[in-house]
Amino acid sequence: MMRTLKFLVANNWEVSFKRHLLLLLIIFSYPYLLNGQVNYVQNPSFEQYSKCPYDWDQIKFANNWSPIDTINHPPIDSFGSGNCTPEYCNICAGANRRTGIPYNDAFYQYPRTGNGMAQVYMFADTTNIPTFPYLRDYLQGKLYKPLISGKTYCVSFYVNLEESSGYAVNHIGAYFDGGQIDSSSADYCGYPHTKNIPQVFSTAVINDTANWVKVEGSFVANGTEKYITIGNFFDQAHTTHVPSNTGSGFSDAYYLVDDVSVVESDAPAFAGRDTTIVAGDSVFIGRNEILPGVQWSLKSRDSGGGWVLIDTLQAGFWVKPAIGTNTYMVKQTLCGMVKYDTVTITVRRVGINELNSLPNNWHIYPNPAKNEIRVVNVGNTSNAALAIYDLSGRLLLQQPLKFDHGNAKVPLNLVPGVYIVHFSNSDEREQIERLVIY
Description:
Blueprint: H1 2-28, H2 30-35, E1 65-67, E2 87-90, E3 116-124, E4 139-142, E5 152-161, E6 167-169, E7 172-177, H3 180-183, E8 200-201, E9 213-220, E10 227-232, E11 241-243, E12 252-264, E13 275-278, E14 283-286, E15 294-299, E16 307-311, E17 316-319, E18 324-334, E19 337-348, E20 362-365, E21 372-377, E22 385-389, E23 395-400, E24 407-411, E25 417-424, E26 430-437
Parallel strand pairs: 13-19
Antiparallel strand pairs: 1-4, 2-3, 3-12, 4-10, 5-9, 5-12, 6-11, 7-8, 7-10, 14-17, 15-16, 15-18, 18-19, 20-21, 21-24, 22-23, 22-25, 25-26
């Protein structure tokens, strides 16, 4: 009976613990839940993969990406076959000259962000081979939810012309639908899909092999869009092609693709939640996803108080600010619509060097201590509280202090070492003391 009772108690404790743990996860995730994911594209920077690519035509290894028409044409085949299958390149491939980064048989280039990118065949000159069937690759990704009817979306992705390409072209674009391209058997998938008019495409010829060039545009959704497909949907007669700057002898145009985004055009900018941390800690600001047109600046502390540009690639990142008040500003530009947001990170000083600069109203004994300390305050004890940090600034214990006959007892469960104790009360007066545990 006792064993059964213990089992029930243990399970009740486990259920209670899990509920509290879930609550904590919700609380700490609140900024992310509140703002949510704004980019509709899954795996937009080709970072996540099921398998590291080792050969051509392996875009299916990049999570949530595939070639079109996978039912009628195998997604894996030899290079140059008419199966319209893009390549997947990732730094994980190392020295592999077919899928490796940055050294590759077709290019020398790093991804715009992260470790992965796609390689897409956009054009082939068929002057001397009029029946050549392999004219296009098409890169298809499933959106994490359908677009909303009547809403305007800003679409963008970045491309870079491979150095081995003999031509540079225009009309690189993105087509949105419910996935009908994947089930189509009317047209051979390697031919231009002229019946599918991309909602967004570049009218300019992109001839840059060094820099990533943004293709961007907006459109109003009809509510059926579940997939994005990137490629050149125009036929030879309606595709402008010029010799590439590299002078390559090849008769095709290959482009690298990275950082794909589909965002509601009126999405607000988000810099993060104002917060206070301890010196030495880091905090994440912004959005943890891929977004175009983002610039971050830090407010200068000099007399001018201007803004200093610190990043132009990431929608969010970890920062480790200096002690004091740090204000960051994000500028978000979506298809010409500019929005701003700021976040203030206050860093409180918790360090050995500052111990002697504070008023000595609080006392700890014994010190060194083992498993308990007593706190005495010769001043105001109203709303008194204590926090204990390790020397890296990590918070280990935080609790109010209840005084009885002039002192407060605090049980401890700390490993031997040196700690920092922070005291505060209703007067907003603070004091820091060093505590040694043996």
